[in-house]
Amino acid sequence: AQSVTQPDIHITVSEGASLELRCNYSYGATPYLFWYVQSPGQGLQLLLKYFSGDTLVQGIKGFEAEFKRSQSSFNLRKPSVHWSDAAEYFCAVGTSGTYKYIFGTGTRLKVLA
Amino acid sequence: DAGVTQSPTHLIKTRGQQVTLRCSPKSGHDTVSWYQQALGQGPQFIFQYYEEEERQRGNFPDRFSGHQFPNYSSELNVNALLLGDSALYLCASSLETDIQYFGAGTRLSVL
Fold first, then answer.
1. Which is the most buried residue in A32, A49, A101, B96, by most CB within 10 A?
2. pLDDT level of residue A96 (50, 70, 90 thresholds)
3. Which residue in B6, B100, B107 is closest to A101 by CB distance?
4. What pLDDT is stored for residue A97 in this prediction?
């Protein structure tokens, strides 16, 4: 069965520091992978996606993610965090021909001034 | 270009009541998916509608039902509300099975 694990429930970083949010998935074939961000009281905004091709994908707001098939991972990174990045981040997996996304439980990011 | 819009924003109901939530997809999208996001959890897939038919369903009871209209908008109905149905309900639209774009959600509180 498909599943997504986000091992870190909470992460705190200082403004200007680098960030890496972890995501591991379980699926037999190559999945479609997504990172979404959710600000308090808001819906989900797509940060980036991986379908195929280059395993390093660039997204909005300066975020990037790297697909590593051998590790079943799709970690999200940002070289320098801004206070406005404080939010909850969700990793999701979908598969070709499927109609649903499976989400992780999320990582809440706190940014210290 | 309006994105995915959901109404109402907030809703308070009591146990046993019925509720209807509404979703208008992003322009050009023909597919609507519904998700339930309980507090502190990730969204969980309820079902998806395409061409006015339920195409796939997640692990939710029959109390949860839906509808898609010819203009692609959709409704989510929940009957016999339970306290555990309190959650943020998210609608996502897509062009068939392409990327899903989410609305801001409807916060349902069941008292």
1. A101
2. low
3. B100
4. 65
CA–CA gap between residue B64 and residue B53 (Å, rounded): 15
Listed residue (B35, B15, B50, B74) closest to A38, CA to CA: B35
Task: Pick from A10, A91, A101 the residue to mutate for testing the B interface (most B CBs within 10 Å).
Answer: A101
Q: Cβ–Cβ of B41/A36 closer than 8 Å?
A: no
Whole-number pLDDT of residue B98: 76
Residues 6+ apart with CB under 8 A from B19: B11, B13, B77, B78, B81, B108
CB contact (8 A) between residue B58 and residue A49: no
B97–A100 CB contact, under 8 Å: no
> Does A106 contact B99 at a Cβ distance shorter than 8 Å?
no
Residue A66 pLDDT greater than 80, yes or no = yes
Q: Is the pLDDT of residue A100 over 90?
A: no
Does residue B74 contact residue B34 with C-beta atoms inside 8 Å?
yes
Chain B residues whose CB is inside 8 A of the A43 CB are 4, 6, 90, 102-105
Strands A10-14 and A107-112: parallel
pLDDT at residue A99 greater than cutoff 90? no
Q: Which one of A34, A43, A99 has the shortest CB-CB distance to B48?
A: A99
pLDDT over threshold 80, residue A28 = no
Q: Considering only CA atoms, which of B23, B5, B3, B20 is closest in space to residue B108?
A: B20
Quote the CA–CA distance of B72 and B27 in Å, as a whole number.
10
